[in-house]
Amino acid sequence: MDKFRLAKATLEDYLYPTLTTPSQHRLEEDMIVAIEAIEKQIPLKVAYAVRSDGEYDKSLPYCYKCGNKVKDQLYCENCGQKLDYSGYQDTKDIMMAILEGK
To answer: What is the rounded CA–CA span in Å between residue 19 and residue 92?
Structure first.
């Protein structure tokens, strides 16, 4: 487990069960923001557009998280997600919906 996944798991374990006092509520909100920031540091494999023949078009990578077109970027410029180009997510249904504007 890499350091970001470990930090995220530690924060989630500390956060739940939900805190109840007002000062603890602020701590809960801050921890949620921290967890979201850590999640963006865990690379997600890019998604690829699907050609009309049903095959992936590896010249058109998309951010798996937000659907933004990306190309040779370490992070998505739209949502800040760290990207992994070493493979791809199995996303034919998701990418077809993005490309069709659904």
So the answer is: 40
Name, in order, each residue with C-beta under 8 angstroms of 66's C-beta and a sequence gap of 6 or more. Answer: 76, 78, 79, 81
pLDDT at 23: 61
Confidence of residue 42 (pLDDT cuts 50, 70, 90): very high
**Most distant CA pair in the chain: distance in Å?**
56
- What is the model's pTM? 0.62
Is-contact 82 44, C-beta < 8 A?
Answer: yes
Residue 48 CB: number of other CB atoms within 10 A? 20
Q: Which residue would you say has higher pLDDT here, 72 or 89?
A: 72
Cβ neighbours, 10 Å, residue 74: 10
CA angle 72, 78, 81 (to 5 degrees): 65
Q: What's the CA gap between 77 and 44, in Å, rounded?
A: 14
